[in-house]
């Protein structure tokens, strides 16, 4: 599968994979969110986004916040991947390998619009 595989329209029914992490989570000294995005890209998935939270807590029950007086080095991070259900399901073993602490969820979603810009050749 090549990264060009991602340049295909999604059908109306897709699957969303959401990974909730801490900003300081790593994989071999590299940010875990970045490793997830790069692997998703290499797998030819349709898209991935990383969202940085301003406040949150997880299993530690410790609140992490970006407020000025409470400098946090481990803000919440969410990685969202969307593609055909079969492609997301095939990617799950990699997610399970990488995520040793955090939360991973799956939802079936309805694609309303999926457009991309044609790149000049």
Automatic annotation (TrEMBL):
Gene3D superfamilies: 3.30.70.120. It comes from the Bacteria. InterPro entries: N-reg_PII-like_a/b (IPR011322), N-reg_PII/ATP_PRibTrfase_C (IPR015867), UPF0166 (IPR003793). Belongs to the UPF0166 family. This is DUF190 domain-containing protein. It comes from Nocardioides guangzhouensis. The lineage of its organism: Bacteria, Bacillati, Actinomycetota, Actinomycetes, Propionibacteriales.
């Amino acid at each position: 599968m090549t990264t060009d595989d991602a340049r295909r329209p999604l059908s109306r029914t897709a699957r969303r994979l959401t990974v909730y992490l801490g900003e300081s989570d790593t994989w071999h000294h590299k940010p875990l969110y970045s490793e997830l995005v790069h692997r998703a890209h290499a797998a030819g998935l349709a898209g991935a986004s990383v969202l940085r939270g301003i406040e949150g807590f997880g299993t530690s029950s410790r609140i992490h916040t970006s407020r000025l007086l409470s400098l946090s080095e481990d803000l919440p991070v969410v990685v969202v991947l969307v593609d055909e259900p079969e492609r997301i399901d095939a990617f799950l073993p990699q997610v399970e390998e990488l995520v040793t602490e955090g939360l991973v969820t799956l939802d079936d979603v309805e694609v309303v619009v999926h457009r991309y810009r044609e790149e000049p050749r």
